[in-house]
What we know:
Layout: H1 7-14, H2 18-24, E1 54-58, E2 61-65, H3 92-104, E3 110-114, H4 122-132, E4 140-145, H5 147-150, H6 158-173, E5 177-182, H7 191-202, E6 206-212, H8 226-243, E7 246-252, H9 267-278, E8 288-292, E9 299-301, E10 314-316, E11 322-324
Parallel strand pairs: 2-3, 3-4, 4-5, 5-6, 6-7, 7-8
Antiparallel strand pairs: 1-2, 8-9, 10-11
Amino acid sequence: MKERITPHLRALINAGSEAIKNQFVKMKQTITKKKFPTLDPLGEEEKYSPVKGLVHKYTRVALIKVSNRCGGHCQFCTRCREIGSADGDLTKEDIINIINYIKEHTEIYEVILSGGDPFFTPNVTFTFLELLEPIKSVKVIRVGTRLPVHAPESFNNVRIQEVLERVEKLNKFTNPVYILIHFNHPDEITPSVERVIWMLRQKGITLLSQTVFLSGVNYFPNNDSDIETSVKILDILFTKLHCLGIIPYYIYRCDYVNGLEHFVVPFFKEVKIMHKLEGLLPGLALPQYVIDAPGGRGKIRVPSLSWFKHIPHTFRDIDGKVIKI
Ligand code: SF4
């Protein structure tokens, strides 16, 4: 994946933010003992993509990849195999195929617009919102984005505003629409980002966030007090989000993507960090800590150290398959 850094992110890097730099500047990879074998550990392309641009992995939920394009390129991205390429651009026929699939599969009641970033290609996103609205079986829409973090000023763009008007109308009169923004570090919440959040809240949209444990971003391995430092960073992040009206929804273990090994935090460090956060954060500010099962299916909730002295390194995914992390 090529480097792509917006002027907004560049300004934060120039001001000294290590967390932003390590997410967006392409680094020489450090040598790690573990080498992940695949670029697609979640099997999105191989197993769960019945038509181009659609991932149907969980019975009731479908994910539409509106494009492979994003405002900035997050170097830890699970879909780094394809982000930035034109291969994900959807033709009219592709869009019709996706919509027909969703209409035929009436068990799908939640549709996630993802990508790439749906707000980076507002025309395609607008089309999908229009086409999804009349489908009776679709009850909930979720839009995942990082554009507020990459380029908050772009939310003044007329086409994005039109998408948001559509979202506002849908949310008020037809289907609940949730916007899920991905934040990894408090440095990402600048005053201009806060203004976007306020604008979205004024439209009555429910806001959620997701985070990924990332070495060099919200965890620093060479630090004697690595756990305490990470707890401090994440405590500030989740408290800020909570106070801004965003519910921190998930914190993920970084996916096991070939080439991203250096971003992965030791598992037991994450478990201990979460245990400390449990004692600090109110319930609404504490995200669920999950692993997207590599080579399996399902978001696996990692149990709390409040229950177990040692959390095992193996678990069963939702199909019963044993997975070792
Ligand atoms: S915005 Fe999302 S899809 Fe795009 S590069 Fe970042 S993590 Fe990947």
